[in-house]
Design a protein that fits this description.
It is built from four helices and no strands. By secondary structure, it is mostly helical. α1 packs across α2. The longest helix is centred in the last third of the chain and has 28 residues. The protein is elongated.
Length: 105
Amino acid sequence: MNETQTPALNRKKRYDLNFKRSAVELWLVGGKSAQSVAAALGLSDQTLKTWKEQLAVVPPKSTAPTFEELPAENQRLRRELTGARRRCDILKKRWASSPNPAGTV
């Protein structure tokens, strides 16, 4: 019998998202060149660069108040602190006037 081998299909390799992220992180954090990281992983450096562009995350908008908003934020926090102190004082007075303040029997 004549056994014939089918030629390997030239398919693109598929990599999952975690692998891509790890590869890009290894490149960016590791301090090595794209070429050396790609070669170690069996990729082309262009593939690694493409993944970096695809996985680029737009930084979220800052939630910090602007300079103009700071006085209003400061006033709100002062009111909140005053209310918290008031509640704390009320609890202290109630605890002190309770028949068993130390919690002993």
